[in-house]
Every structure is written in C-alpha cells, then in structure tokens.
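Take a minute with the sequence and fold tokens given here and flag any structure token that looks odd. Thanks in advance.
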Amino acid sequence: MANAKIDELIKELDLLPHPEGGYYKETYRSNDLVSTLELPDRFQGSRCFATAIYFLLVKDSFSAFHKIKSDETWHFYEGSPIEINMITQEGKLIRQMLGTNWKKGEVPQFTVPAQTWFASRVIKGDYGLAGCTVYPGFEFSDFEMATRKSLKEEYPLHNQIITELTR
C-alpha cells in the first residue's frame, strides 16, 4: 500500500485496522442510551443512540461480508466509488455504488438495513473514504463476520461474490 494519500489519511485521521477489512476510527458515540426495554429483542442490553466512524477502504482489499443488528448509513467523502454488496434475508443480492456520479447510479449516502449481510470494496482507484453512522449505536457484540462456507451454503446462487468478499 505505497500511496502517500492513503498514508496521510491513516495518519491524519488516526485510523486503525478494522477486523472486517479497511481502516476506521470512531468519531462519535452518543452519551444518551436507549434502554433494553425499548429495543428490539435482537439486542442484549442498552445501546447508545448512535455511533459514527471514518471508514477507509483501499485497493486490493475489501470489507468482508458481515452483518450487524442496527441500520448503518454510509456517507461518501472522497476517493474512488465504493461498491456495497448486500444479501438480504430473502437471499436477494443487491449492489449499490457509493459515490458522487449520479449519472452512473452512485449515491453519496446509503443505508444498509439491520441484519443484512454486506461487504464493500473499491472497484477502481486507490482508496475510498466514507463515514458510517449506526443507530442504535454500534457494539462489537452486535457484529457477526460471515464464514465463506456457511454463507455459500445459505446462498449458493451468490457463490462468486461470496468467494470474492470473504476470507
């Protein structure tokens, strides 16, 4: 990853490697909490209202298929467009490009619904910088990384993209 701009972003934004791939830094965690009684049953314990991160993806890498218990809104900042691949609970594959070229179907903001398997990558160029806002707020206990084997067994029609975006 010999790219001065990427190195600068990692340093200036104080980014760390993310377990799913890419780099991140939490930039916001609300102080207010939603109680367990007010949350859907899929949550164990209270959650803060929202969290936000910077998220940097670089070429020749990807954010592997995973899902979380909350909705996650992506915001495009700069660099190359980011492809978000989702497999719905019904098994439908959806691809959304995050970027600023509206004529090519890119959008600068997009929300991945809770409980949806998703993975992302930069298609061309060196990097894509985005922000991700999660509500109720993100906790690593709400994060589930897919295994290639189990995802292929559950969604055999999507073997190619699962192979490309799992480790």
